[in-house]
Amino acid sequence: MKINKKLVQVCGVCVATLIITCAMSIKAEAKVNDIKISAPSGRIVRVAKGKKVKLKTVVRKHKNKKVKFKSNNPKIAKVSANATVKGIKSGKTKITVSLKSNPKIKTTINVVVYKKAVNKIKLNRNKVSLKKGKRFLLKASIKPSKNVSKVLKYTSSDKSVATVSENGKIKACGTGSTIITVESTDGSNKQAKCMVSVNEPKVSIKKISVRSLNAFNVELSDKCALDYKDFIVTYKFLPNSKTVVSNEILGVNTNDNIHYEVVIKDLVKFNSYVKIEICKIKGLNNKEIYIDTHYNQSFFEDDSIDEYLTNMVGHSFYVDIRDYVNCFPLTYPIKINYSNLPKGIMVDDYNLKGRCESILNDHIVKVSVEDAKGRKVYINIHMLVGDKDTIVEKTFDFKTLAYKYDERNDGVNMNNTDDYSPSVIIAGGDRKLYYFDLKDYKAVGLPDNTQINSHGGITVVDKTKDVKPGVYNITVSALTPKDKKITMSYKLTLVEGITIKGRVTDPLGRAFSNIPVMFQIEHNIIEHNGYNKVTTDRNGNYEIRLFYDKYKYDVIIKNNKSANCPLEYLFYSTMNSFTKSQIYDIKVNFYKNN
Questions:
Q1: pTM of the predicted model, to two decimals?
Q2: Architecture of domain 205-291 in CATH?
Q3: What mean pLDDT is predicted for residues 393-397?
Q4: Can you list the alpha helix ranges (DSSP code H) found in 321-424?
Q5: Cα distance between residue 426 and residue 330, in whole Å
Q6: The listed CATH number (3.30.870.10, 3.40.50.1010, 3.30.559.30, 2.60.40.1080) that belongs to domain 35-114
Q7: Whole-angstrom distance, CA of residue 540 vs CA of residue 560
Q8: Which residues contact 361 (CB under 8 A, 6 or more apart)?
Q9: CA 239 to CA 358: how far, in whole Å?
């Protein structure tokens, strides 16, 4: 191959030239940054016609820091040797700043000259009183409003008391006083001042209310960080009584340092005066509430309940209605009315008693209750009465979680349900019968991957496979010990549920590993559904499935001595609603042991 040597030589020169040019360009650009220049108005010089402003220059990386200034258009703005810029007439230009020792090292700054100068600055407030941590926007207006620079400079005389942003946002930092000065930057030297006083917030108890059977909501007037040691809870039964009883505190929780949940060991007592005192705050530090509602053992929020009772014809029947009235939080005194009593049953004060004279298949006695505040609730007593030859049964529909395989921990942390056996009550026969006393169980309509066993239990077959959510109409047939056939039908609803997951940490963010977290259905003596328990992993993470429906949960972590905690519980929070899958991180108020 023939090569043109002259061409190669020319190309070589071009390449070398290109490399040298690029290197020089990079070096020059770097040296531009060796000089920093600014004006009172910032990166652009804003000066009024006939006024003067002083530039500030900073030279880095050079021993000789002397510079010289030059205006690109002296008819617009002039600049002196000592960095003073004077506006000559309205318009725009640039000022070049270069090193005297090396004029090639230089930079420029834009200049805007305004036709008019600021002659007055007016603030929306001349005095401001703030609580520590609060903010305030200081607004400034200037005159004239046109053909003038509107860039202002905000400064605080004591930044430990309050700081101010370039837009006038004041932040109260510490107690004391400071002066916020607002100055023009166009050379007119106009200013306005605002006196700022900062005080510690005077926090008071704004409101207290009953949250659950053993907890109160406490609302403060302002933010204040508190823990369990700052609260004192006492109660008494007479307004002027000197005998007061202290309540042990199980936990104090807050998300915003304003709204607190205070959990106590005792249940809220009817007809008592509860006083909550916070020693740490300086304002109104105690408040009393009268408990005029009888919560008994339940915080039941619905307005009706259904109770199912079984009996035999001719046998005595006795029911104390107060057992069911006590399910509702009511204000006494109350009025009770009864209707649809069957033959042989009468009312005696709070009691239903007598002898059932005939077979009853889900006969409903209706009881209505009205309390002193006008709240109406209803109790439906369902009576199932059989005899030696007649069996009456009731099978209940129910809803629960669909089984879901969890490879990580055998379903424990997924809170799986793997038993879908029916809930049945039976009246009649030659003796009292229960569902599991029967024999020869058969079932149709079961979900896939479930079966009915010889004891009547409907369970998951293969626990490595899911059970599909859905509605299943199931019919179970079985024989009594004397070979009488009973057919029981019910609707089983299986749901996916919701997934709650999060991390359990101490105030420093350190994880609590291998610690049980309980999601306990809030006190409800109507439905005994127990609790759901999950254990955190080594990083403090947990994950659990819940059956949300209408339930509210107490979230509880017992004290397992993994933290420096003198209480019975590391964490205790009541009446939590979970209606969708979510992250629920738990911050324990006590420090983890090393």
A1: 0.65
A2: Sandwich (2.60)
A3: 95
A4: 322-325
A5: 33
A6: 2.60.40.1080
A7: 15
A8: 384, 392
A9: 53
CA-to-CA separations, 440 to 147, 239, 436, 477, 548, in angstroms, rounded: 99, 65, 11, 8, 35
User: From CA 279, how far away is CA 407, in angstroms rounded?
Assistant: 50
Hey, what amino acid is at 588? Answer: V
Q: Does domain 498-587 have CATH number 2.60.40.1120?
A: yes
Between 15 and 475, the higher pLDDT residue:
475
288: closest CA among 231, 204, 207, 373? 207
566 confidence band (pLDDT: 50, 70, 90): confident
Q: What is the C-alpha separation between 426 and 394, in angstroms, rounded?
A: 7
3-state DSSP of 151-198: CEEEEECCCCCEEECCCCEEEECCCEEEEEEEEECCCCCCEEEEEEEE
Q: Are 176 and 161 in contact (CB under 8 A)?
A: yes
Residue 309: the pLDDT is: 93
Transcribe 238-295 into DSSP letters.
Answer: STT-S--EEE-EEEEEESSSSEEEEEESSPPPTT-EEEEEESS-SS--EEEEE--SB-
Tokens of 487: 């057919």
Name residue 348's amino acid.
D
Within 13 Å of residue 526, how many CA atoms lie on the same side as its CB?
21
State the DSSP H helix or E strand holding residue 387, giving kind and residue range, or none if neither: none
CATH 2.60.40.10 corresponds to the domain 297-387 = yes
Which pLDDT score is estimated for 6?
A: 40
User: Any idea which fold 120-199 has?
Assistant: Immunoglobulin-like (2.60.40)
Q: Is the model's pLDDT at 191 over the cut of 50?
A: yes
Residue 12: which H helix or E strand, with range? helix 5-32
- HEC secondary structure over 504-516: EECCCCCECCCCE
| Strands ordered across the beta sheet of 52-54 | 52-54, 84-87, 77-79
Average pLDDT score, the chain: 87
Q: Counting every residue, how long is the chain? A: 594
- pLDDT-derived band of residue 478, with 50, 70 and 90 as boundaries? very high
Looking at CATH, the fold of the domain delimited by 394-493 is given as Immunoglobulin-like (2.60.40)
Spell out the residues 6+ positions from residue 427 whose beta carbon is closer than 8 angstroms to its own.
Answer: 310, 311, 312, 384, 385, 386, 391, 392, 393
